[in-house]
Amino acid sequence: MAHESTGAIYAAAGANLAIAAAKFVGGALTGSTAMLAEGVHSVVDTANQVLLLVGMKRAGRPADARHPFGYGREIYFYAFVVALMIFLGGGLFAIYEGIERIRHPSPDADAHLFGYTLPGIWVNVAILGFAIVAEGVSWFVAMRQFWAEKGQASAMRAIRRSKDPTLFTILAEDTAALIGLLIAFAGVVLAHWLDMPSLDGWASVGIGLVLVGMAVFLMVETHGLLIGEAAHPAVVAAISELVRAEPGVLHLNEVLTQHLGPTDILVNVSIDMADDLSAGEVESLVTRLDRAVKQRNPDVTRVFIEIQTQADHALRAAA
Length: 319
Fold this sequence. Notes:
By secondary structure, this protein is mainly alpha-helical. The protein has helices spanning 2-30, 33-59, 74-103, 120-150, 155-161, 165-193, 198-227, 233-244, 279-296, 310-318; strands at residues 111-113, 116-118, 249-261, 264-273, 300-307.
């Protein structure tokens, strides 16, 4: 899924660069606060995509003495930083600028280009129309890849169970961007049509609220990944099935799993083994289990098997 996520990130970054330039030009020419807020939003989104690419690269570094389990969680850290930047750099800025426009409303100025005077409303509408099309293409790429990954699960359930934050972060950004563009379009048109410049400011506030809401949602989702989440219940069930199928295992005490990265699962199994097994038989059983668990799920990279009686495990768990 890393290759697919990278494709979605590049598509989003390319679209946002073009959109940001167009929005800033339109905002500078017409004085529209909603356009400037959207321009800042696009710049923040572009920076976010760069951060995700950096996070993916750093997460792929091999394990070393200082980080023996690797750097997989780096992507979770960078995804959290992205959510924080959406909150601060996009949402709060848009709300602040919108409030300022509401307090000091002024109509959009006409644009002067190459000796021609163009009504400000048409400049903003043209730029927003271009932005909606470009953002829509980026959103379609992210949605198609997310839809292929989620399978039969609902979108929300797929996001909650996903251990790869890159794709759903890009999808969330693109969704928020499209909603923001539609709000900006409505605000710019209604401000001109009703001769109420303050509506442009209210549109900026609306954009900011959408970004803050999306940022909080992403923070909640990436927070769980950052501190460590268990593998999907189906993965845990498959491991339990393999362990119980071993003749020398008297009782499966516990299966603990944790994602060290999107495709890096650590597994710790506690089992009670038959007392009459020789050292060689124990070694063979452990080797078979290690190999079988990794073959069943390629994302499992480390398997630790702890041998203890059922009674001892129960005492430790109760302590």
